[in-house]
Amino acid sequence: MARALVNVPKAAKQGEVVEIKAMIAHPMETGYRVSPNGSNIPRDIIRRFACTYSGEEVFSADLFPAVSANPFIAFTLIATTSGTIEFTWTDDAGTAQTASAMITVS
Amino acid sequence: MHALWRLAAVSAATICGIVSAAGIEDGEKRSGFDFMTPETQALQADDMSNPGMLWVLQGEQLWQQAEGRADVACAGCHDNASRTMRGVAARYPAFEAARGRPIDLAGRINSCRAERQQAEALAPESDALLALTAYVAHQSRGMPITPATDPRLAPFRDNGRRLFQSRIGQLDLSCASCHDDNWGKRLGGSVIPQAHPTGYPLYRLEWQTVGSLQRRLRNCMVGVRAEPFAFGAPELVDLELHLTERARGLLVETPAVRP
C-alpha cells in the first residue's frame, strides 16, 4: 500500500510553469542508529526519486541518509502537452513505489 | 452585618480572581499553532505538504477494509465517515458504561475492533491505529472542542486536573508549572505552549512521524524525569479528559504539525 500524496494542477495553459509536489510515507532509516537491544538498525532509505511527463523523464533526485522521514519534494515543470505525470520512488531494496496524476493542457 | 457580608463577598471574589489567574483565561486561550514559526504553520495549513495527511490517507483506506472474524469494515457499520464521524473527536474522551470508565478515541477504535470486528487490538502507536484515529479525528477539523457533559465523567476529570497540578519527577514540576504559569516564555530554545490537545494525532517534526496525545504526555513525563504511565493507563485518559475541558472552544486541527 503505497502511501503517497502528489499534487499536480488538473489543468494548465500551454507553456505555463506549474508547481508539482510529491510526498511519500517512508521511515528513511539512516543505518546509523542503534535499537534498544544494541543491534544496528539496518539502513532503509529511498535512493532515487524520478518524475516522468508523458513517458519522458523530466525530473529526478538522488536521496541520502540525511533526508528526513516522509520526504517531500517540490519542483516546477513547463506544461507542454496533456498527459500523465508519473512518480517513482526507489528504495534500498530496489522496490519501486509509484503514483501518477493527469494534467490537461489547453 | 451587611458590611461584613459585603467584605466577605469582595474577598471571595479576590480569591477567585487569584485562582483563575493561575490558569488560562478564556480570552487568552491559544492553540499551539499560534506559537509555531510561520514555516511550520505553512506546513500544517497546506494539505499537500502536511505529512500528517499521509496517515489520514492510510486511515481512509483502513476504514474500508474488512477485518477480523466478523469480516466487517469500519464502513460496514459506520458507513461514510465524513458524515457519521463528524464531531466525534471534538467530544472525546467519552464515558464507556461497560467499563465504568472514560475511554479515548484510540481506545474506542480498539474496543470496536475487539467487540464488533472480533479482531486483534492494534498496538499503541502502531501506524494502523494512528492512521484510523487521525482519519476519524480529521472529520472534526475546524469544529470547536466541546467535551462530553456526562456527569459520570466528573470524578475522572477531577482526577485529571489533580494529576495536571501535581508535581512529579526528579525535577519536581507539574504540567501546570509550565503550561499554566509560564506559557509564552521559553524553555531552552522553544516557546512553552499552553498544551491544548487540538490536533492529535499530530505529526511532530522531532518524532519524524505521527504520534498520539498519550505519547506526548509520556514525553513530558520523561522530560521532568518521572516514571511515565504506560500507554492506555487510566491516568493518561483522565489527563486527556482534563486537557480537553481546558481546551474547550478551540478548533480541532487534526492532523496538526508541531515542532
From TrEMBL, chain A:
Organism of provenance: Mesorhizobium temperatum
All copies of domain Sulphur oxidation protein SoxZ, residue ranges: 9-101
Pfam families registered for this protein in UniProt: SoxZ
InterPro entries: Ig-like_fold, Ig_E-set, SoxZ, SoxZ_dom
Name of the molecule in the record: Thiosulfate oxidation carrier complex protein SoxZ
From TrEMBL, chain B:
Location in the cell: Periplasm
The keyword Iron is assigned to this record: yes
E.C. designation(s): 2.8.5.2
Catalysed reactions, semicolon-separated: L-cysteinyl-[SoxY protein] + thiosulfate + 2 Fe(III)-[cytochrome c] = S-sulfosulfanyl-L-cysteinyl-[SoxY protein] + 2 Fe(II)-[cytochrome c] + 2 H(+); S-sulfanyl-L-cysteinyl-[SoxY protein] + thiosulfate + 2 Fe(III)-[cytochrome c] = S-(2-sulfodisulfanyl)-L-cysteinyl-[SoxY protein] + 2 Fe(II)-[cytochrome c] + 2 H(+)
Residues engaged in binding substrate: R216
Top-level taxon of origin: Bacteria
GO cellular component: cytochrome complex; periplasmic space
Family from the record: Belongs to the SoxA family.
NCBIfam families tied to this protein: thiosulf_SoxA
Function field: C-type diheme cytochrome, which is part of the SoxAX cytochrome complex involved in sulfur oxidation. The SoxAX complex catalyzes the formation of a heterodisulfide bond between the conserved cysteine residue on a sulfur carrier SoxYZ complex subunit SoxY and thiosulfate or other inorganic sulfur substrates. This leads to the liberation of two electrons, which may be transferred from the SoxAX complex to another cytochrome c that then channels them into the respiratory electron transport chain. Some electrons may be used for reductive CO(2) fixation.
The name this protein goes by in its record: SoxAX cytochrome complex subunit A
Organism encoding this protein: Mesorhizobium temperatum
Gene: soxA
